[in-house]
Design goal:
119 residues; extended; 0% strand; mainly alpha; AhpD-like; 5 helices
Length: 119
């Protein structure tokens, strides 16, 4: 068994009954990605969605938005570059969190030992 099966998306229809108000609100909000009106053209909206899907690691989002990006005129190279930009930003977040770790480390008083409860 694997966990990422596009057939699973069919189960989202069940949410319409199980959580009607929430599902309806989600569907309306989700439509903003694929709309043509707005300051950001459709192709770029879909490329942004691909970048977000790369960082959130959502294979279903990747499937939907990669197809939509191609239909909106995105090239294979643009999709690849989008993925690499997302990877760079994700790596950047790791580095900046590393800076936070060093800051927190420096806040521990010199000579402070770990107590038996780990604090």
């Amino acid at each position: 068994m694997h966990y990422h099966d596009s057939e699973d998306l069919k189960r989202l229809g069940e949410f319409k009954e199980l959580a009607q108000a929430e599902f309806s609100a989600f569907v309306e909000f989700d439509k903003t990605v694929g709309r043509d009106a707005g300051a950001i053209p459709r192709k770029y909206r879909e490329l942004i969605a691909i970048a977000v899907a790369c960082t959130t690691q959502c294979p279903y989002c990747l499937e939907v938005h990669t197809r939509a990006a191609k239909r909106a005129g995105a090239t294979r190279a643009e999709v690849a570059e989008t993925a690499m930009l997302a990877a760079a930003l994700r790596a950047g977040a790791a580095v900046t969190h590393g800076a936070l770790a060093v800051k927190l480390f420096d806040q521990v008083a010199a000579g402070q030992t770990v107590k038996s409860d780990g604090r």
